[in-house]
Specification:
This protein has 195 residues and is α/β, with parallel strands linked by helices. Helices cover 57% and strands 13% of the residues. 33% of the residues are buried. Bound molecules: adenosine-5'-diphosphate. The site of adenosine-5'-diphosphate (ADP) has 19 residues, from α2 and α3.
């Protein structure tokens, strides 16, 4: 049973690492950003509501986000473990996740904090804008997302540090190197992937 969170500033490489780690542990990677983008694309009622916030680099309201995650974590494939990418992002979401997991007595095993230099992050995101054309990857919106992260999400690291479950990882370097660092750090904590 592996229950992980990936946390870090926009552009730190959470999505990329989430996919690789989920494979290594045979658990689903659950990205609220991906779920919102899929809903925007399909023009579902959730997507229609979320789009404006996302395009401006604001967080989607907790009420929408919390329900989405509660439903997703109740699905069969998440019962034996999961890797959350991009949730929780606010204090209220931390409380909600505690409530979701607490009802099953399923605590988080580890919170993986991906760290990276802010200038490098802007560079990466502008590059991604060229490659993927994400609406929230313009320089102005990127800078706003960084501010929102520092304001609302960075404080969550203290909450999880107080629980002794934060693993800090240097997010700079090749993708494979970063994955290696994470796997080594988790293995050192007795959380190695099953072979
Ligand atoms: P990044 O990590 O690059 O900021 P994500 O793909 O994780 O991008 O998220 C993109 C956008 O989706 C966010 O800027 C926000 O609008 C919305 N979003 C994703 N996860 C959450 C969340 N947990 N709470 C509120 N909004 C979210």
């Amino acid at each position: 049973m592996s229950r992980f969170l990936l946390i870090g500033p926009p552009g730190a490489g959470k999505g990329t690492q989430a996919t690789l780690l989920a494979q290594a542990y045979s658990i689903p990677a659950i990205s609220t950003g991906d779920i919102f983008r899929a809903n925007v694309k399909a023009e579902t009622p959730l997507g229609v509501e979320a789009k404006g916030f996302m395009d401006r680099g604001e967080y989607v309201p907790d009420s929408l986000t919390n329900d989405l995650v509660r439903d997703r974590l109740a699905q069969q494939d998440a019962l034996a473990g999961f890797l959350l990418d991009g949730y929780p992002r606010t204090r209220d979401q931390v409380l909600e996740l505690d409530d979701i997991l607490g009802s099953d007595n399923n605590e988080l095993d580890s919170v993986i904090l991906l760290k990276a230099d802010p200038d490098e992050l802007v560079r990466r995101l502008l590059n991604r804008a060229k490659e993927q054309g994400r609406a929230d990857d313009t320089e102005e919106v990127i800078r706003h997302r960084q501010t929102v992260y520092l304001d609302q999400t960075a404080p969550l690291i203290e909450i999880y540090s107080a629980r002794g479950i934060v693993v800090e990882i240097d997010g700079l370097g090749q993708v494979g190197e970063v994955t290696e660092r994470i796997l080594n750090a988790l293995t050192a904590r007795g959380l190695s992937p099953a072979i």
